[in-house]
Amino acid sequence: MGWVESLQKAIDYMEDHLLDEITIEGIAKQANVSEFHFQRIFSVLTDITVGEYLRRRRLTLAAQELSTTESKIIDVALKYGYDTPESFAKAFRRQHGITPSQARNYTGKLISYNRLAIQVNLKGAEPMNYKIVEKESFKVVGVKREFSCENGENLAGIPKMWDDIHVDGTNDLLFELNNGQLKGVLGVCVDKRAPGSPLMDYWIGTDHKGETPGGLLELEIPASKWGVFEVHGAMPDAMQNTWKQIISEWFPSSHYQHAGTPDLEVYSNGNPSSSDYYSEIWIPLK
């Protein structure tokens, strides 16, 4: 099964089980990837989390049912996963801007989030500069924090972590310790791999040869074949746009698959707000 087909299979599974209690583990199995990688791919492509997609779709269907049937509001609330009419009304109003009763009485506009269908561009309008390299295992030294991928916790927590290491001087220290092949400070996502676990470790570190300085941790990056993609432009938009291009264009049109080991984002020692700032994305391939 191809990459696009497996991702669409996972989305179809979500749609077929909108009224059930489904897990990230069960969804990711449909795409034959880990929970971590599925959530990351999904959020990169859609700019929302899996949980948010399910919530939006359920509330869309709930609104349609209220406006076209005589079903009681309490019954609709329970059907779409809400324990009380109050919690349902709160979520309903947050999405649609009106109450369930107003939807029943046709007063006010409804917001519809439609079923996703994956479409990829096999030929991108913008060229991608990349190379394939082989690299032996190496050591990253730095700091790490654990995040949950549920409800976008990692999406909010990781930028905060970067802010913290700039304030406390860790970023400058890592550039001073950088004496390996990869030049810069690295952002590394590590899948915890426990079945059903939404947890991940995020590292900010650098390629370092020698003893690990006190106060820092070390992470062994395994030997791999890497796809190294150039990123040009200000952060964070340039990095996010390149990730989208890799996932939606490059992977579907290449014969490579993700190897399942950590990705690397390599940030150079420049002004990340500059339009000519240079960084890289390193993806392990098989």
Describe this structure as you would to a colleague:
- The protein is of the alpha+beta class and 286 residues long.
- The chain folds into two domains: 3-104, Homeodomain-like (Arc Repressor Mutant, subunit A); 130-285, Regulatory factor, effector binding domain (Multidrug-efflux Transporter 1 Regulator Bmrr, Chain A, Alpha-Beta Barrel).
- Helix content is 41%, strand content 21%.
- The protein has helices at residues 3-16, 24-31, 35-46, 50-68, 73-79, 85-96, 100-104, 153-167, 170-177, 237-253; strands at 130-135, 138-148, 185-191, 199-207, 217-221, 224-232, 263-267, 278-285.
- An eight-stranded antiparallel β-sheet has the order 1-6-8-7-3-4-2-5.
- Helix 1 packs antiparallel against helix 2 and helix 2 crosses helix 3.
- It starts with a helix and ends with a strand.
Strand content: 15-25%
Number of E-type strands: 8
Report the biggest beta sheet as strand number plus sense, adding barrel if it closes.
Answer: 8 strands, antiparallel
Domain count, please report it. 2
In the CATH classification, which architecture of the largest domain applies?
Alpha-Beta Barrel
Report the principal-axis shape: elongated
Residue-averaged pLDDT, rounded? 90
Binned, the helix content reads: 40-55%
What Rg is obtained from the alpha carbons, in whole angstroms? 22 Å
Distance between the termini: 16 Å
SS-based structural class?
alpha+beta
Spans with pLDDT under 50 lasting ≥5 residues? none
Pfam families: Cass2 (PF14526), HTH_18 (PF12833)
Protein name: Effector binding domain-containing protein
Domain HTH araC/xylS-type: 8-106
Keywords: DNA-binding, Transcription, Transcription regulation
